[in-house]
Amino acid sequence: MSCLELDDNDILKVANPMMDDIIRGVARRDYSLYSCHFSVDLKSLGGPDDFLAQCDKYAADWGSPGERDLVAIFRKQKSFTLIWNQRFSGTDGQVMSMMSVALKGGRYFVDQLLLH
Hints:
The protein has four helices and four strands, in the order ααααββββ. It has helices at 8-28, 31-35, 40-43, 48-62; strands at residues 65-75, 79-88, 95-104, 107-115. The relative contact order is 0.20.
């Protein structure tokens, strides 16, 4: 199946549980939960130590994560990318969360992730 054929609700049914685990992993400082949907390529970019350093930075700069609002969905043949406005308790500014999900071997994996 092509990701171009998925409607917004289909994409959100896949992506929201993944992003929920990522954000819960950040809040709990739990690398296993944070990375459980990552592709092999994404897992190879950093490990638990890098993750904990990022958690420290997020906590110091933004506080703890809260609600998020969908801003946009972009589709390609074998992937889709979502952008959210991610709230954090310690900032009045906006934090963008971006996640790309790739379809590989009939399964969906988080292939890119950014909190900025």
